[in-house]
C-alpha cells in the first residue's frame, strides 16, 4: 500500500489532494453523526463498527439504523440498505473501465461510492483516475469506521445538524461535476436526470430516486435506434447521402434533449 | 435486536452491496475491453468495414469523408480501425456522461430530500448558497464552508 501511494505522489496534481482532504474532513464529520445516531438507537459499538466497515456506504448505514430504530424488521433494513447502495452498481460500471483486472480490483471494488467515483473523474488518464480513486477509497475506508467509533463514544453530545454538515455533501458533489457541465449535451442530460430523480424520489422506496435519473439514456438509446434503422433502410436503397446522415444525427440530438 | 440476527442482516447487506459493486466493475471492464478489441476484427472484415466507415463518418457529422463506393481495400481497413478507436472513445464518453448524470441526481436528491421527505429550508438555502458560490468559480473548500455556514446560521438563529 505504501508503494502505491508513493507512486500516487507523482501521478496526481496537488488540487486532487486538496479535494480528497476536503471530502475526508466532511466524511469524518458525517461519520461522527452516524456513530452518535447509532449509539442513540441502541446499537453496540461493535455493531456500529462492523456496519461501517463492511457496508461502507454512508447513506446505507443511516437507512439501516433508521429502519431498525423505527422498529422495522431486519430484513426490511437489509433491503432498504441494498436499495440505497444499488447506485454503486452504476458507479462500478463507470470506474471498472480503468480498474486493473487482477486481485486489486477485488479490494478496490469495496471502496466504490459516490465520493471515490467523483474524485476519480478528476484524473486525466486511466492511471491518474485509478490513483485518485485509491486515495479517496482508502481515506473513506479508514475514516468512516474511525469517525463512527468516535461518534459512538461521544453519543449525543454533538449535533452535526447544527453545524450544517448535511448541506456540505450535496455541495461537494456539485463541485466535483461542475467542470463537466460546461458540455451542453451533458448539462441538458444532467438537468433532465435531476428533474426525473427529484420528481420520483417521494414516490419510490429510499435510495431508488437517484438511480431513476439514468432513464434519460433511454431517450438517447431510442435516438440511436431510430438513426440505425434509418441508415439501414438507406443502405438497402444503396443511396447513402451524407447530408441526410447529418440530418438524422441532428434529430437524434433533439431526441436526447427531450 | 439480537447479536445473531444483527450478524445475519449485516452479512446480507455487506455481501449484497459488495456483489453489486463488483458486478458493476466487471461490466465496466467488459465494455471498455470490447471497445479496444474491436480494432483488428473490423479491419479484417474487408468489404463490410467500408459500410462501417461510412457509418462512423455519418455519426461524426463529417459525411464528406470516405463515401462507401470509393473506398478501396486499404482505405477501408484504415477507416475501419479509425471507426473502432472512435467507438471506444464514444462509449467512454457516454459512460462518463452517465456518471455525471448519476452524481448530479445524488446531489439533487440529497440536497432536496431527507429520506423521502422534503428537507428543511435551512439545508435548501445552504446548498443553494454553496452551489451559487461554486458557479461563480469560488474554490471548492470556500463553497463548502459558505454553504455550511449559511445552513448553520439559519438553524442556530432559528430565523426560519
TrEMBL record, chain B:
Keyword Membrane listed: yes
Region of interest (Disordered), residue spans: 36-65
InterPro entries assigned: Brnchd-chn_aa_trnsp_AzlD
Parts of the chain that traverse the membrane: 6-29, 94-113, 125-154
Coiled coil: none
Keywords: Membrane, Transmembrane, Transmembrane helix
Descriptive protein name: AzlD domain-containing protein
Organism: Brevibacterium sediminis
Amino acid at each position: 500500500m505504501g508503494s502505491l501511494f508513493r507512486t500516487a505522489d507523482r501521478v496526481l496534481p496537488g488540487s486532487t489532494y486538496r479535494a480528497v482532504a476536503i471530502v475526508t474532513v466532511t466524511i469524518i464529520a458525517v461519520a461522527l453523526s452516524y456513530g452518535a445516531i447509532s449509539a442513540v438507537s441502541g446499537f453496540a459499538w461493535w455493531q456500529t463498527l462492523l456496519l461501517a466497515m463492511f457496508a461502507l456506504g454512508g447513506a446505507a448505514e443511516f437507512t439501516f439504523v433508521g429502519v431498525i430504530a423505527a422498529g422495522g424488521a431486519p430484513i426490511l433494513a437489509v433491503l432498504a440498505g441494498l436499495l440505497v447502495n444499488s447506485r454503486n452498481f452504476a458507479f462500478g460500471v463507470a470506474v471498472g473501465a480503468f480498474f486493473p483486472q487482477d486481485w486489486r480490483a477485488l479490494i478496490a471494488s469495496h471502496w466504490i461510492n459516490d465520493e471515490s467515483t467523483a474524485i476519480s473523474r478528476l484524473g486525466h488518464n486511466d492511471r491518474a483516475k485509478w490513483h485518485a480513486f485509491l486515495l479517496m477509497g482508502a481515506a473513506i475506508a479508514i475514516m468512516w469506521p474511525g469517525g463512527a467509533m468516535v461518534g459512538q463514544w461521544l453519543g449525543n453530545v454533538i449535533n452535526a445538524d447544527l453545524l450544517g454538515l448535511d448541506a456540505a455533501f450535496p455541495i461537494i458533489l456539485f463541485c466535483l461535476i461542475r467542470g463537466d457541465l460546461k458540455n451542453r449535451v451533458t448539462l441538458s442530460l444532467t438537468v433532465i436526470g435531476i428533474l426525473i430523480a427529484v420528481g420520483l424520489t417521494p414516490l419510490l422506496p429510499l435510495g431508488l430516486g437517484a438511480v431513476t435519473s439514468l432513464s434519460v439514456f433511454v431517450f438517447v438509446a431510442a435516438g440511436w435506434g431510430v438513426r440505425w434503422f434509418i441508415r439501414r433502410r438507406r443502405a438497402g436503397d444503396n443511396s447513402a447521402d451524407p447530408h441526410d446522415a447529418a440530418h438524422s444525427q441532428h434529430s437524434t440530438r433533439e431526441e436526447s434533449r427531450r | 435486536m439480537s447479536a445473531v440476527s444483527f450478524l445475519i442482516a449485516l452479512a446480507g447487506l455487506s455481501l449484497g452491496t459488495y456483489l453489486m459493486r463488483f458486478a458493476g466493475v466487471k461490466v465496466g471492464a467488459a465494455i471498455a475491453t470490447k471497445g479496444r478489441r474491436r480494432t483488428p476484427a473490423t479491419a479484417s472484415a474487408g468489404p463490410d468495414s467500408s459500410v462501417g466507415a461510412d457509418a462512423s463518418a455519418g455519426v461524426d457529422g463529417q459525411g464528406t469523408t470516405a463515401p462507401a463506393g470509393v473506398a478501396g481495400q486499404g482505405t477501408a481497413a484504415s477507416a475501419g480501425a479509425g471507426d473502432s478507436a472512435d467507438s471506444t472513445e464514444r462509449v467512454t464518453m457516454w459512460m462518463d456522461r452517465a456518471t455525471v448524470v448519476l452524481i448530479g441526481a445524488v446531489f439533487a436528491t440529497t440536497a432536496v430530500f431527507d429520506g423521502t421527505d422534503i428537507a428543511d429550508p435551512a439545508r435548501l438555502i445552504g446548498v443553494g448558497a454553496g452551489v451559487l458560490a461554486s458557479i461563480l468559480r469560488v474554490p471548492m473548500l470556500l463553497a463548502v464552508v459558505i454553504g455550511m455556514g449559511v445552513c448553520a446560521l439559519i438553524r442556530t438563529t432559528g430565523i426560519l
